[in-house]
Amino acid sequence: MSDILVITQELINDVDRTINYFTVSDLRRKNKFIYQYLSDFYLKQKIPFDKVIQFLRNIQQNEASFTILLENLYLCTMVIQQSSDSRKLLIQLMQSLAERLTQTQKQIFFDNFDEEVLWECGFVQQDTFSQRKRKINTDKNFFQNKFWSMKDENEGYSKLMVEILDAAKHTDIYDEEIKQRIENIIHLIGYFDLDPDRVVDIIIQSWTEYPCSLSYVKILKQFKCISVCQFLGKRFESIVQTLSNNNNISILMTKMANSAQVMQTDQKIPDHKLIIITATALKYKLFELGNIWKYLQPNDQDFSKIFEDLAEDSYKFYKSFDQVMQVEELRDSRNNNDQSEKLKKDLFGQQLYNQKLWLMQGLIHINAFNIFQELYKSFEGIVDFTIFLPIKRTLADLIDWMIDPLHEQQFNKTLFKSRSREQKKFIYDPNCTTAFQIKQLEVIDEDAISILNEILSIFSPYIGEYPLVFHKLCKVLIQSQNPDVQPLILDHLIPALQSGECLPIVIELWKYLGQLDFRKRFDCYSKWKDLHQFSTINQTIRAAQLTKEHIRSFFNKIDKDNKDKMMVKFAKLSHNQPMIVMNVLRRNRLEIPDNNSVIVHTLGLATPLSLDILQFIMIQWLCDFNDESKVRDKDIECRYWFKNIAQFIASVLRKYYTIDMQGLFAYLIDVFSTDQSNPSISKNESIIKPEILILRELIEKMTGIVHIEDLTPQQIQALAGGRYIQLETTSQTNEFRRSRKSSSALEQFFWSQTINSQRILNQNNQEEVVSLAFLMLVVLCQQRSRFILNYHNQNLKPLVALYDNFTCSINQLTKCLLFQTDKPTHYAQLFPENPLERMVIDFKLPFEIAFHIVRYSYKSLYNMSEEEFQEEVDNIKNIYDKIDPKIMCINPDINNQQVPQLPLICHTYVKDILWTIINPELFTIFWLLSLDNIYVPQAIYDQQLKWLQENINKNPDTKDRQSKQHQKAFDKLQNELDNNKKRQEQFDKCLRDKKHVFSFKEADQAKENYHIKFAQCLSQVCLLPRILIDPAEAIYCAKFVQKMLKIGKPRYTYTFYVPKEIIYFTFTYLQCATEEEASNLSIFMQQLIIPYANWNDETKFKNDLRNYFDTSIEGYDREKQYIIQNIFFKMAQFIRILKNNETQVRNALIFLKRVQDIFPPTQQMAEYIKIYLQDVEKDYGHIQDIKTQIKNFHIEDKINTLPVYAPKNTNTAHESKKQAPNQEKMKSVGKGADGEHEEYNHKEHSEERRNQNNKTDGRQVPKKKKSHDKDRPLKRLDKS
């Protein structure tokens, strides 16, 4: 330390001396001295600045000392803080020292200090120093000599190229020789010090020339993935740059912006091989998708304006299409601006030259579907392949390649062209575990269905553009018989029809679809319709818009003259776009008057799929309207548009009867169904069921059986005959003949297709399968019963019309079913076991309606053995006994003045005495028989046969078409007449064999008022319920009474007493009957009093009694008087009181019109009726139709033509009533007369003679019998 102080003092005193002259020889001591000199003396300002400079200049002359000086200066810069005074002195010292340094010393000086110190001293510029430093570092550390391998400037690259090109020969990645190639390449890189990145670039360049060689995958796995991505990305960028320089992209942009249709291209891009190797690298996990995705071009922003225009153009189509497809009441409240923005987003980046889309196509091409699917899902469903054909084409080739083995197995001979070239594109690598690969299918199993579902969820909107692949896929899936393929077909293939045009595909799909239940089909159609409404795919939107424009133009041009020509055009439009075409048809054309026939004809070439979709659209449209909107206000009359729809549906099903009608009938059943646990109708509930019009129109059109409301007397009599006489008398033969195909289709529909189609819950809550026809009849009857049980809560007038409408529909449907079959066993197939009990007890249907439906399913009476007959008697009696009158009877509201007290059809009192009055066997026979069993209208047959024979004789040409038809009709009628006669003879014989059933016991006839109780029970339990159903039933009831009296041969007075009492009990129902029921009642009473119609002609009168009742009388005057006063006059009295309300007036007028040929029989009764009509006209003349009916009677003109028969005074009348109609000797004639019967009549006549001599005997029957003739009917009526 002492030495340093000495030297320092010397330096201070003599600045000319340098450190070299000091005796200090140790280097360490020198270093320490200089540092302390600078820090302790200079920086603390103990030594002047000029002396320090002089000292340092002396030191720099020696290189070793200069180095030590720089080291100490560096230490000072590290120790002294910035922005201090010492720091400033140090910087000043360094700047002065640097000015006098040599160039070499400056270099050494700069190398010893940090960048910050040099910046402070001002030796370098801060902005350029960093760049120069990087450049210097790069030149220093990374500089390499570059060699051109093709000129053999470096031997290593030449050898490398040999190894790389030789590796291209090995296409299998798992080839063992590749390992040797990889070792050679690595050794070459190390031996010749080759650049690894340059080697990667060379390998990629070679791979682009041989993209199918997988050996490069294993080679590139030895290098960094970042290097591989960088070189691939640079290649993508360079291609885009090349296209930009040549203005190719601007040309593509212009084409896309100006294109009005979808752009299609099949040309390969320049970087096609680059796409393939990039996709292969992704498949084998050389790098992740995100590493290469950022390099793919072009930038979406460069094309934003193009796709904004394209999105706006597509949205215009979408908006117009949305207006066509959506129903006004169910319009979606989407915001137009939001939808436009969504479409812009959907179409953003969807350009023709898009490397990202090409990469997706390449992933499919090299069988890496999972990566493609992952990439597709990353777009969140917004990608649209409409303008990018390569992806669509590749997906089509993939499906074709997948299913080709299956297609060859199932179809040896095929029209499809060989696609071996395409099939070679897709290679399945069984050893690849880095990607999910699709392989060719050998069987359609769960895995195959899952794969196809994934592919079709992307490709189904476009598969229609490739009809061969589409058809091939349909055939393979359908032929597989695997039920799990159903979602594929319904969710993907059916909606895919809209994307192309191929009729064979539609037919192939319908073969499968037509076998499914209508519920599954309709569910598929519903999803298809929603797909149309909310689709954002350009191709779907534009195809829909184009179809809509064509169909509108079609409807503007079609008329009756060009309907055949336009039929072909309509078929082409509807084959692949049935949802749009049929929807436009429904919305715009079906409400136009007189348009149904043209439209129905236009559907002639439509496929079954199109017709089924039309049915679905019609049903869905009907569901959108409530019942009140289908009818006029405050009326049950359907609106015109609904009538037009009903006629259109019926016309379509008649002409195209192969349509599956289950959907329509299921809709009708659902409309008519009621909740039996709560049969009441609330005031807010709609009772209007306008869909009944559809059912009636359907039956009339398809069967040719039209319901005629106002039947002529001829037509009424023809109801007793077979189907042909009924058709001939109603002029429906030609219509029935034209409907035979649709009628047969309806038969097949009821008996084959829907025999076990409806599932219901029985009383035990167990599922049961029934036929559609049975269920339809049940719901119609239940709805009809609801009208009866709830009439006091509703407006009466529409309720009455609805009740008649449903009754006619039940009759019409039953008649339709009966016309389809002639065998009871065949008809019985429609019903479950013991159908009568099921309908009456389980479904709570009226007994008479249930029997009316199932009657023809019973075995014919003459074919029944005695045991079978007795079994049926017990069964029917037990069923009737189970009926609860509280549930089945009519319970009128006594406070309702519009409707009088109704006669109860199943009254408790009647049930209590029923089996003591009426034999159960008689009850069973009455319900089992029908009109054609007991009566044949011989006169009507003869008249019609005569007319046909005359027409045949006028035109004897056997080749004439009309003559042939007349001859066929003649033969059918003659054959039908002969069969009916034979059948009637068999029934007559059977009934005669059961004569004991019809016979009245003498003990019963001796009871007081027995005939009244008998007539009451027979009327309320048997006659009246059956009369109200149908005109044929009304005639049957009258004929049955006559047949019963004829076979039973009771006392001769019963010939007059029983019909009279029956008239009394049935006539009262006119007070509350509907118009149809009043007409039926009138027909019944007309037929019942026909035997007494010739009361004014003794000969005819006796002949009529003999013919109808097998009874002969010798007297005449008393019988005539009895008939006039107790039958005809009482009827007139009944008519006089039917004026309390409009319903009674209408029913009275219906009765008078129906029996006008028989009633009124005398001038006095005509005067009664005249007064009645005058009173009615006075009270109800403001109702136009009532006033018109009154005028049409011409009662004043009729009075003068009638005989005069003055009724006796009241006392005389009562005395005459107490006398029997014929007190003279009478005898019974006919085939049934025998000794026993004559003895019975003799005994009866003896009793009558004893009665005339006023002999009093407690056992005398006539005296008790006479008490019945008091004025009871009027008194009963007054009570009600």
TrEMBL record:
Q: What is the species listed in this Swiss-Prot or TrEMBL entry? A: Paramecium primaurelia
GO cellular component terms, alphabetically, are: THO complex part of transcription export complex
The THO complex subunitTHOC2 N-terminal domain covers 570-646
Q: Which domain of life is it from?
A: Eukaryota
What's a Pfam family in this record? THOC2_N
Primary location: nucleus
Instruction: Give every THO complex subunitTHOC2 C-terminal domain span.
Output: 915-1192
Enumerate the InterPro entries for this protein: Tho2 (IPR040007), THO_THOC2_C (IPR021418), THO_THOC2_N (IPR021726), THOC2_N (IPR032302)
Subcellular location as annotated: Nucleus
What family, per the record? Belongs to the THOC2 family.
Residues annotated as region Disordered?
1206-1280
Instruction: Tell me yes or no: is Coiled coil among this UniProt entry's keywords.
Output: no
Q: Which GO molecular-function terms appear in the entry?
A: mRNA binding
* PANTHER family per UniProt: THO COMPLEX SUBUNIT 2, THO2 PROTEIN
The molecule here is called THO complex subunit 2
Q: Which parts pass through the membrane?
A: none
Q: In this protein, which residues make up the domain named THO complex subunit 2 N-terminal?
A: 32-410
> What does the UniProt keyword field contain?
Nucleus
Q: Please, one GO biological process term?
A: mRNA export from nucleus
